[in-house]
Amino acid sequence: MLSIARTSLQHSSRRVLSIARPIHTPCRPFTQPTPLKQAPATRNVPKIQRRNYSQIPERNSIGAFTPTSAALFVLAGVGLYFYFRHEKARLAEEREKERGLKSFGRPNIGGPFSLTTHDGKPFTEKDLNGKWSMVYFGFTNCPDICPAELDKVTAVLNNIQKEHGDIFLPVFISVDPARDTLPQMAQYLQDFHPSLVGLVGGYDETKAVCKAYRVYFSTPPNADPKGDYLVDHSIFVYLMDPKGEFVEAFGQNVSQEEIEAKINDAITEWQKETGKKV
Amino acid sequence: MGWFSSAPKKEEGAPNRQDRQKCWEARDAYFACLDDAGVVKAGEEGKACSKEKRLYEDNCARSWIDYFNQRRIIAEAQKDRLSRVSEKK
């Protein structure tokens, strides 16, 4: 306010001088900086000057805040508010579209399967929906990698369940249909997290689920149920979202902390999209 | 005792956590003995580690033993290669 008052004073005091002298810098906004040599331009200058300068005192006497400027200010504010809201919505939509595209780029891991749980209930890929699932393949006679990985999964589950609640469904799918009976699976899983569900099928069902998850396994179809053999198999832990879509695969070298961080990120992302955790 | 020894408690069924632990401990003891004897390939130690070997075989399935022995050879070869690489540097 003070600076406005001062400049207005200067304007009025210079008003007289400005007729005889060229225009000074504070007044530049009201005039065209036209070179004097150009005849047509100079002819117009006095006319413009006269009109502008006669208006200044009136404008200054009212001050900068007229009802019109206040209305303009409010209008601009409201306009900007709606503009930004619109932009935000547009960006969110764009991001949504991108996400949609991203899901097209996902590896095609997972798919229909039909197996039996370690306590004898039928289980298909539809039973994975509505929960975050971790899918791991192995066999109960596995010497060291499977139990180590299942221990890691157990530790991860302990922590993420504490944080997010009961929204996880970890499954352990047998790649040894000849030897992994239901009671044997049940007994084996007692050593690990209680929410782990053991899944067993015949040779063909096992082959089908392994194909769906791009898992290699080496059990021959005519393996001896009493035989002493190992099954070579892929050892990834797959994270699937509540829609049953693949999110991430964790290899043996991915630490427990890294898995937890990835799962937390996935849940946050999902929550941003859907407003829910599952 | 073990689950695949001459007098197995469990004819069928996979080893549980305790069984696995026992097997791993017996394996580590046997491999430590092999290290002392300067032997990489299990079975080439003569009679140097017979006590450890018996415990190892009592507590681990044959398939596990083959797997661990084979992995020991691979791991040693890898160690060799790694040390050679670091020497070159």
TrEMBL record, chain A:
Membrane-spanning intervals of the chain: 62-84
Keyword annotations of the record: Copper, Disulfide bond, Membrane, Metal-binding, Mitochondrion, Mitochondrion inner membrane, Transmembrane, Transmembrane helix
Superkingdom per UniProt: Eukaryota
GO terms under cellular component: mitochondrial inner membrane
Keyword Mitochondrion part of the UniProt annotation: yes
PROSITE patterns, per database record: THIOREDOXIN_2 (PS51352)
GO biological process per UniProt: intracellular copper ion homeostasis; mitochondrial respiratory chain complex IV assembly
Keyword Metal-binding assigned: yes
Record: residues binding Cu cation: 142, 146, 233
Major location (coarse): mitochondrion
Thioredoxin domain ranges (all copies): 104-268
Cystine crosslinks: 142-146
MF terms (GO), sorted A to Z: copper chaperone activity; copper ion binding
Pfam families: SCO1-SenC
Compartments it resides in: Mitochondrion inner membrane
Family to which this protein belongs: Belongs to the SCO1/2 family.
Name the record gives this protein: Thioredoxin domain-containing protein
Automatic annotation (TrEMBL), chain B:
Coiled-coil blocks: none
PROSITE patterns, A to Z: CHCH
Pfam families: COX6B
Location of the protein in the cell: Mitochondrion
Cellular component terms per the entry's GO annotation: mitochondrion
Family statement: Belongs to the cytochrome c oxidase subunit 6B family.
Location of region: Disordered: 1-20
Species of origin: Hebeloma cylindrosporum
Keywords, in A-Z order: Disulfide bond, Mitochondrion
InterPro entries: COA6_fun, COX6B-like, CX6/COA6-like_sf
Comp. bias regions, Basic and acidic residues: 8-20
UniProt protein name: Cytochrome c oxidase assembly factor 6
Annotated Gene3D superfamilies: Cytochrome c oxidase, subunit VIb
